[in-house]
Write a structure and sequence with these properties.
Elements: E1 4-12, E2 16-21, E3 24-29, E4 44-53, E5 56-62, H1 65-75, H2 82-89, H3 94-102, H4 106-109, H5 117-127, H6 132-135, H7 156-168, H8 172-178, H9 189-200
Parallel strand pairs: 3-5
Antiparallel strand pairs: 1-2, 1-4, 2-3, 4-5
Length: 202
């Protein structure tokens, strides 16, 4: 098992990042790949989880051991796979997810791609009261932000963010509902992804 990889960001796309460690490029799936663009050219540490199936071996990466721990707890829930767990963590605020679980707020949980009423109840059943080791280590960093002013324009970073949302499993019709309120803003792709997720989860 690879605990972490330390290196520099070589490539970022909507689905994964490539981190260069001593000349070897590791493809790592992360909750929001574009959040790592700000780390370009500097050495970073990615905490990894290796997922093995009959037809695939994949690395999933996280910015902290606590985020990785929450990912692994979500994987233990029946009906949640790596892609679904990544989509939940991509909200940018794991504390919001933890609060929803502890308060049995399945209405919030079903807003994530692939999470229906039954799966939301299963998440609560399996994880409520069992997240104390990671809950206190998160601080809200997304959902308290003010709404962006609605404008109309084309934006390359926004287009990249749309692709990232599709990779996370959001339907095109869901994405189209939030795009008008994001257009014509001067944001990075990472910021567009976070802001779109904020709107999708409301």
């Amino acid at each position: 098992m690879i605990e972490f990889i330390k290196g520099t960001i070589d490539y970022v796309n909507p689905e994964y990042i490539v981190i260069d460690h001593q000349g070897i490029g590791y493809q790592i799936h992360t909750p929001n790949p574009f959040s790592y663009r700000k780390d370009n050219q500097k050495e970073i540490t990615i905490y990894t989880y290796q997922h093995v199936r009959e037809d695939i071996i994949a690395l999933y990466g996280f910015s902290s051991r606590e985020e990785k721990a929450l990912f692994m707890k979500l994987l233990n829930v029946t009906g949640i796979g790596p892609k679904g767990a990544l989509a939940i963590l991509a909200s940018g605020d794991p504390s919001q997810v933890i609060e929803a679980i502890e308060n049995e707020n399945d209405t919030f949980l079903v807003k994530f791609p692939g999470v229906g009423k039954k799966t939301a109840r299963q998440i609560i059943l399996d994880l409520k009261g069992k997240l104390g080791d990671v809950a206190a280590l998160y601080a809200p960093d997304l959902f308290n932000q003010e709404e962006l002013e609605q404008k109309q324009t084309d934006n390359h970073a926004l287009n990249e963010a749309v692709e990232a949302l599709k990779v996370l499993g959001y339907a095109e019709r869901e994405i189209k509902k939030v795009i008008p309120s994001l257009q014509n803003e001067s944001l990075s792709t990472d910021q567009y992804v976070k802001k779109a997720l904020q709107k999708l989860l409301k």
